[in-house]
Design brief:
The chain is mostly helical. It is 73% helix and 0% strand.
């Protein structure tokens, strides 16, 4: 038991170092891009290309692990990411950055797959919920802490790029230090078609798509938004850190609220509240940019509410399908989230290019307001106003990394060392026929 705990600690340390370096790099690239004269449109495309690389990694990482093993695959991706981090300073060119950013996204999410599949292999069922919660907390803390490293030096120099490269490279040390054998797990995720997921829980699909459309630009373009408002690098670091940490605490009451009423209505309310907050942020950015405390507070609340949309959507899907299908269904939702994360930054980047800082919250407003209207019309047509009698599952805060984190979800009854019996996991006959006693899905 002690050796297992040591192994898990090593994996947690590896992912913390990886996120610390990569999150620093993500913000640093936007600041350096602005200093080099890159347009907001290009920086939006740069963020989209990163998520494109991440999507490709979800398709190929399993084959890489099977061919190379966990440790060698992680070592390969670490070296790749360390080289990419330094390459940004050697080739300061838009075309070169697009290629490097694609490779960076691929390397990061391949490393996610390695760590998460290994973590699953070392985690006993009794500790799954605890490990999942700690993993989510580590992700948020690492992203928030990384922003404080911006205070060490200016983005126009090389020091921060070197620090980011050192942190990412150091992530290999905990992995290589552990003496446990690599897990013999099946890292191929069972699948469920998006159409079947949509039939079971269309609101969950909408929620994940909107979450990706919002959070993709948030992670990638917030530094540009804050920079356009005239914030110093110190203020920028504080803004992003508070938004993430404060948002992490706010999403819990929002999520727990969803356990007590119809989750579809909760998702609608989060859309509406987020729209109002985005409107307020756009007004402040346009007419009151000096009110930085107010803008930071609005961003923190906004981030907390939007962060809750994806987990609520996942748990709503769990309400509609059997728990042993959670991994397959959630994998499809993760792909939908990835699609939104790929498309969103490009659109938001174009808006920032032509409208200035207020364009980013204005983009949020358009996406969320449009989605709110769509859900309202669906609710009216379906007459879904009742509160369900009960819920089979409970809200769990979760991160959106690779599909291999999903078997650790406390509601999942599936583990990676159990091979699926077929390539597709169908809905139950009861779900396909719609003969459930809870309100009809919209």
């Amino acid at each position: 038991m002690r050796s297992i705990l040591v192994s898990i600690t090593a994996l947690f340390l590896a992912i913390f170092l990886l996120l610390l370096g990569n999150s620093l790099l993500s913000t640093l690239l936007i600041l350096r891009g602005v200093a080099e004269g890159f347009s907001g449109k290009f920086l939006g495309i740069l963020t989209s290309v990163y998520f494109l690389g991440a999507f490709v990694a979800t398709l190929l990482a399993s084959r890489m692990i099977k061919r190379m093993g966990h440790i060698r695959c992680f070592t390969f991706c670490t070296a790749l990411l360390g080289c990419c981090t330094l390459a940004y300073t050697l080739a300061i060119s838009p075309y070169a950055w697009l290629i490097i950013r694609f490779v960076t996204g691929f390397g990061v999410f391949a490393m996610y797959t390695v760590v998460e599949s290994w973590l699953n292999g070392q985690t006993q069922d009794a500790y799954r919920s605890r490990v999942f919660s700690i993993y989510t907390l580590i992700n948020l803390l690492a992203v928030a802490a990384s922003q404080q490293l911006l205070l060490i030096d200016s983005a126009t120099g090389y020091t921060l790029f070197i620090i980011a490269s050192l942190l990412v490279t150091a992530a290999i040390m905990p992995i290589s230090w552990t003496r446990l054998q690599q897990p013999n797990v099946n890292v191929d995720m069972p699948s469920m078609s998006i159409l079947k997921v949509f039939d079971a829980a269309p609101v969950a699909v909408t929620g994940c798509l909107v979450s990706g459309l919002i959070m993709g630009p948030f992670w990638g373009l917030t530094p540009l938004f804050v920079n356009d408002l005239g914030y110093t690098e110190n203020q920028l670091a504080t803004f992003i850190s508070l938004s993430i940490l404060g948002g992490a605490f706010i999403q819990y009451p929002v999520g727990r609220w969803s356990d007590r009423m119809d989750r579809r209505r909760v998702i609608l309310v989060t859309f509406i509240l987020s729209s109002l907050l985005a409107f307020a942020m756009a007004i402040c950015a346009k007419y009151y940019p000096v009110e930085r405390g107010l803008i930071t507070a609005l961003s923190t609340i906004f981030c907390g509410i939007v962060l809750a949309i994806y987990p609520i959507s996942v748990v709503h899907l769990v309400d509609r399908i059997s728990k042993d299908n959670l991994v397959a269904g959630s994998s499809s939702l993760l792909m939908i989230y990835g699609l939104g994360s790929f498309v969103g930054p490009t659109i938001a980047g174009f808006a920032l290019e032509h409208m200035g800082a207020s364009a980013l919250p204005a983009y949020y407003l358009v996406v969320l307001a449009t989605s709110s209207l769509v859900l309202i019309m669906q609710l009216i047509r379906s007459r879904i106003v009742e509160i369900p009698d009960d819920h089979e599952s409970h809200y769990v805060a979760m991160v959106r990394t690779s599909q291999n984190v999903l078997p650790m979800h406390p509601e999942s009854e599936e583990v990676l060392d159990v091979h699926p019996t077929s390539d597709e996991v169908p809905l139950t006959s009861e779900e396909l026929s719609g003969e459930r006693h809870e309100p009809e899905s919209i």
